[in-house]
Amino acid sequence: MIIGNKQSNGIDDAADQRLRFLVCGDRGMLIECDDLNATLRLFAAVKAAASAAESSACAPITTPTQSATGQSLHARPGSSPTFDADYPAGVSPNMKGIAARALRHADALSAITELIPAARTLFIRFNPLLTTRAELEVAVQELDTRVDVAHAAHAISIPVTYDGEDLAEVADMLGLSSEAVIARHCGTPWSVAFVGFAPGFAYLTGGDPCFDVPRRATPRLSVPAGAVGLAGTFSGVYPRPSSGGWQLIGHTDVPMWDDSAKVPALLQPGDTVRFAPVRPQTPIVSGSPASAGASASADFPTNAASPDIAASDTFQRNAASPSTSALIVLRPGILATFQDDGRNAANMGVTGSGAADPIAYHLANALVGNAPGTPAIELTNGGAMIQASGDTVVAVAGAPVDITVTGRDGGRPFAIGGQEAFLLRDGETMTIGAPTAGLRDYLAVMGGFDVPRMLGSASTDTMSGIGPKPLHAGQTVPIGTGSHAEPTDGRRTTDDNRHCDVGPGTRRPSAVSAGVAPREDWPSDLPSPGTTTTLEVTLGPRADWFTDAGLNTLLEQEWLVTAQSNRVGLRLSGEVPLERRDATELASEATVAGAVEVPTSGQPVIFLRDQPVTGGYPVVAVLTTASLAMAGQLPPGARVAFRVTATPARHHMAATSGSDPRLASQDDGAIASHEFAERTHEQATEASL
């Protein structure tokens, strides 16, 4: 949808702009602007309006609201909040207008949960239980975007050794010598436009006009920290080891991200950056010792590439925690990480992370009576062995696995036959086998794990290395004393609630504790190698970048989940690649968990929970929330079919086109993708009759 925005309040007509609203999943929208400056103005206006709306919804009108510049906006008692407010000196008229419009659309704007600006787009995530897409579009459209984007800007010099493995190829693309590329890269200052892709990854713009370099057709498996690259008109420095498709021209030893710093990211929006050449030393190339430890068998970074964020083998217990129980990891399996509901720090380039299958994760915590959001251990493909130090109540939920418990004396094992809470005594060992279907399980303990948090979450981000390290053999994990439901009927967990010696193959009785969820059978609908799982998607935001034949291929062809998959995403392989209508370079924009991104190769990638915050390949569709949870259980060798669900944008058009002519003006490409979805629904219905 393309809408013109023209203010008639006496403000300069330079505020005119065109906004294109694009569907981005069942709880998100992408707004395309004319250029980067327009995007940053829109971001500032929406951020200020959402803050004002949230304050008005949560507090009396006399409570100050916070503007985008950090100033308080007060309304006089008994006055109209829209037209009769007392503002501090220096607050611009457009800021007053933002506050007024925010109050008119408070319900819609207060439903915003996340904002991610990028090169030409602003992503807005919202709570669909609190507003509709149509209401939010109207609220955004009425904002005055003449907000000054204030920065505490700094000038930063970054020394670079120009030894990148793509330097010669970039020179050939631009028709220059390598020396000329270096001179131009250093000769013009760059500005930080926004931060995305990875924590501390700053997109630099405004360099020499010669730089307009396409990304690599296939991203590298591993790019070392400090690599300096080019993509489109941007330059940037990789802050951590990760995958990446930028053209590498050099490297720097200056860290872009410091966990111990008050502001971890070196570069902030508005900063000026100058690169300074230094004498070349040993080149950094993929597969060199500098990048050792990164996975050579996956297209996404693995835990081996993650830095030591939580460096101790035994986590330090909080001083206030009196618990003495712990779990000892004898064998972690392929990958064991701490996960919870994730982070909300995209403004720093930090992805959400969190449990890949949130349904199973929440069930595991409920089984032991933990409060929502309590950290649990996510196990990938089972194979774990855990020993108790002190008595504790545990539960495993997710993919069906065999669970056996062996006593301290090595006697006959107990068998756990479902998703249930049970008592693990001091010295007993729990063995978790490989799943018979699905891929991931969640181990929760009553009281939760006493693990460090970063940016409000204990989740391990396998792409950037934020959060606790993946678990390893010999690690001791203390158990906390988190909140859980209190007994309501006087029952207690005692020796009478369990057998001391039960024969092999017999289900061990659950520990009885009020407040825990009842036992559930293992799920029977999880995917397995060789079977096909249907995932529901909404088309967009870039479905119009693909031909009808390409969209048919997406929806009619089955796709294989390859072994080059992990928590960052699932790499799919199909016989026919997706055909694009628009082969131009896409400016970097927000990516979300569940996004189906299509690199130049035409083979899709489904992003999971550790996805980059921004990316540069078109997203043809986004999984629904329910299908995203199922995707977290897809093992390598499983097959995927996509099915289009009801399109929010089409429903939005039907509901609003008669009432607001601005909302009836759809972009031809967006309409085409939605009509394609409807034709697909009709064809599927006819085929089933």
Count the beta strands: 37
Strand proportion, as a percent range, falls in 15-25%
Biggest β-sheet description:
7 strands, mixed, barrel
Approximate helicity band? 10-25%
User: Could you give the distance between the termini?
Assistant: 34 Å
Task: Supply the number of helical segments.
Answer: 11
Form type? globular
The structure class reads alpha+beta
Q: Which segments are poorly predicted (pLDDT under 50) over 5 or more consecutive residues? A: 5-15, 60-91, 282-322, 485-514, 648-674, 677-689
Biased composition (Basic and acidic residues): 486-501
Protein name: Allophanate hydrolase subunit 2
GO molecular function: ATP binding; hydrolase activity
Keywords: ATP-binding, Hydrolase, Nucleotide-binding
Characterization of the model:
The structure is a single chain. With 689 residues, the protein is an alpha+beta fold. Among the domains are: 17-57 and 98-148, 2-Layer Sandwich (Gyrase A, domain 2); 155-277, Cyclophilin; 327-478, no CATH class; 532-644, Cyclophilin (Beta Barrel). The protein has a 7-stranded mixed beta barrel. Strands 24-23-26-21-18-28 form a 6-stranded antiparallel β-sheet, with no helix packed on it. Strand 30 and strand 31 form a beta hairpin. Helix 1 (36-58) crosses helix 2. The longest helix is centred in the N-terminal third of the chain and has 23 residues, at 36-58.
Topology:
Layout: E1 2-5, E2 17-23, E3 28-32, H1 36-58, E4 65-66, E5 72-75, E6 85-86, H2 93-104, H3 106-109, E7 112-117, E8 121-126, H4 133-141, E9 155-161, H5 167-174, H6 178-187, E10 190-195, E11 202-205, E12 220-223, E13 227-231, E14 234-237, E15 242-244, E16 247-251, E17 272-278, E18 326-331, E19 335-339, H7 358-367, E20 376-380, E21 384-389, E22 392-398, E23 403-406, E24 414-416, E25 421-424, E26 429-432, E27 440-445, E28 476-478, E29 532-539, H8 548-556, E30 559-561, E31 569-573, E32 589-590, E33 595-597, E34 605-607, E35 614-615, E36 619-623, H9 625-631, E37 639-644, H10 648-656, H11 668-688
Parallel strand pairs: 9-17, 29-37
Antiparallel strand pairs: 1-2, 2-3, 3-8, 4-5, 5-6, 7-8, 10-11, 10-17, 12-15, 13-14, 13-16, 18-21, 18-28, 19-20, 20-27, 21-26, 22-25, 22-27, 23-24, 23-26, 29-36, 30-31, 30-37, 31-34, 32-35, 33-34, 33-36
Helix pairs in contact: 1-2
